[in-house]
Amino acid sequence: MAHYDLLVIGTGPAGQKAAIQAAKLGKKVGIVERKRVVGGVCTNTGTIPSKSLREAALYLSGFHQRSLYGASYRVKQDITMEDLTFRANHVINREIEIIQNQMTRNNVDLWFGTAAFVDPHRLRIERSDDLVEHTADFVVIACGTVPARPSHIPFDDHSIIDTDGLLTLKTLPKSITIIGGGVIGAEYASILATMGIHVTLIERRPRLLEFVDQETIEALQYHMRSIGVTLRFNEEVVSVERQPQEQVIVRLKSGKEIAATTVLYSVGRTGASATLNLETIGLVADDRGRLTVNEHYQTTVPHIYAAGDIIGFPALASTSMQQGRHAACHAFGIPCQTQSELMPYGIYSIPEISMVGRNEDDLTKNGVPYAVGIARYREIARGQIIGDELGMLKLLFHNKTRQLLGVHAIGDGATELIHIGQTVMAYQGQIDYFIEAVFNYPTLAECYRVAALDGINQLPRPWPPRT
Ligand SMILES: Cc1cc2nc3c(=O)[nH]c(=O)nc-3n(C[C@H](O)[C@H](O)[C@H](O)COP(=O)(O)OP(=O)(O)OC[C@H]3O[C@@H](n4cnc5c(N)ncnc54)[C@H](O)[C@@H]3O)c2cc1C
Ligand SMILES: NC(=O)c1ccc[n+]([C@@H]2O[C@H](COP(=O)([O-])OP(=O)(O)OC[C@H]3O[C@@H](n4cnc5c(N)ncnc54)[C@H](O)[C@@H]3O)[C@@H](O)[C@H]2O)c1
């Protein structure tokens, strides 16, 4: 048994960053992982694999080149599961190595096994052949989530899979029904359709991703339909039934029956808190297994913190890292701030989407007078060169002060491009910055200048003086 300044449960982004931050402060740190590898959902089954798969699909399908060389252009005609997993596994293994190295370099003790609380300062770590106990002054719970697997869905991890199951398939589906048009559903639907797989996406809401700018989502939905995705909105799933001859039927409340070789169930995830023995320390998870924390990620037991997906929205790798670091800083009295109102969102659908700041619905609801400036990739030299016909960057700014209030982008590089707007917003900048600055040419960043000019041209003349 050892005593630590900090014990962390989980080696995903939240746990890693909490552990490294505490170690950098000279603290004695231990981290526990129940799987046989470090990295969590992010490295092993979620973010990294899905983004590697996307990159492989984009390359092999020749997607980016089609507008220049024709719709039938392909780098490889028959894309196989091995083609995709080859690339994903390469990246996953490198990432695991990097994480493990970081822990070793920073003297963080790594314990493989399943952690559970014995009392508020003591964790039991159960391994296949033995059991150890360690104590700590502080604990960070960063145990993440598991896919929701309701009992009425007959999962078999072969023809009916959850969101962790796609990469473990032996062959690519011939056709797929995706239940749930959240971030995972939208990303996988567009990736699979890009490779020529017929996809039906079922969503109970009237559109995809309701938190994303309406115009941006319309563009995504238009593109998804154009590559063969059937979008079914306002639909409820009644049953999922496996049939002979490699067929799974999804029955909808509206009476429709949708057949495909594979069904992917992607309607959210549940906090992995069930085995933590929370009742012994007086913590209660909500009905989706999540924990409640204050602005410093402290639970109601002050020396026990929780960070990452286990605390719910926004449940991103990007935010989880920051939350983990923030929790460790707070525990050891180091000032730390998280700029949550300028948190960017990146959705790796094809085409990709990104946003930061406020959207039109929110500004309208709150009576903020704003104007809009838009640049389309097809009107930008770089957009023409890369052959992106659909891309768009949209700036929302205050129509009197010209302060930048929100940026919404769809198209190649959108998730990178958004950070320019994020920085300007962090310094309360006005869109005039984009007009006065010189950008490399030809770049997609030029969209900022074009959109700013477009926005200013929409204002009543003469242009209002700067305040
Ligand atoms: C398909 C998919 C794609 C995604 N894409 C993106 C993306 O593009 N961008 C983005 O920002 N986010 C993305 N996400 C979300 C991102 O993966 C998560 O937000 C992130 O992994 C959460 O990090 P975490 O540290 O909270 O938990 P996790 O990464 O889930 O790690 C938790 C770890 O804790 C371990 N653990 C659990 N219980 C115990 C226990 N009792 N004892 C010991 N160890 C335990 C688990 O085994 C796991 O290794 C994606 C998610 C999925 C599923
Ligand atoms: N790029 C990224 O940042 C990224 C990528 C993938 C996943 N993630 C994270 O992973 C988490 C899980 O994502 P997700 O997409 O599984 O969950 P989600 O909660 O985001 O989406 C679930 C969707 O399923 C719909 N739905 C629920 N029940 C349904 C039913 N019975 N029939 C039809 N539709 C139904 C919901 O309306 C919702 O749109 C999210 O928190 C997300 O932020 C992030």
Description:
The protein is α/β, with parallel strands linked by helices. It has three domains: 3-147 and 270-341, FAD/NAD(P)-binding domain, CATH 3.50.50.60; 160-267, FAD/NAD(P)-binding domain; 351-456, Enolase-like, domain 1. Helix content is 31%, strand content 24%. The protein has 13 helices and 22 strands. It has helices at residues 13-24, 40-44, 47-61, 66-69, 81-105, 183-194, 214-226, 317-331, 360-365, 381-386, 414-426, 432-436, 446-458, and strands at residues 3-9, 29-33, 109-112, 114-119, 122-126, 131-141, 145-147, 160-162, 175-179, 198-202, 229-232, 237-243, 247-252, 257-260, 262-265, 269-271, 304-306, 345-347, 353-357, 370-376, 392-398, 404-410. The strands form five sheets. Strands 1, 2, 3, 4, 5, 6 and 17 form a seven-stranded mixed sheet that branches. Strands 8-15-9-10-11 form a five-stranded parallel sheet. A five-stranded antiparallel sheet has the order 18-19-22-21-20, with helices on both faces. Helix 6 links the parallel strand 9 and strand 10 (198-202). Helix 1 (13-24) runs parallel beside helix 8 (317-331), helix 3 packs antiparallel against helix 5 (81-105) and helix 3 (47-61) packs parallel to helix 6. The longest helix is centred in the first third of the chain and has 25 residues, at 81-105. It is globular, with a radius of gyration of 24 Å. The mean pLDDT is 94. Flavin-adenine dinucleotide (FAD) is lined by residues 9-15, 32-35, 40-42, 46-47, 50-51, 114-115, 142-145, 163, 184, 272, 275-276, 308-310, 315-318, 320, 348.
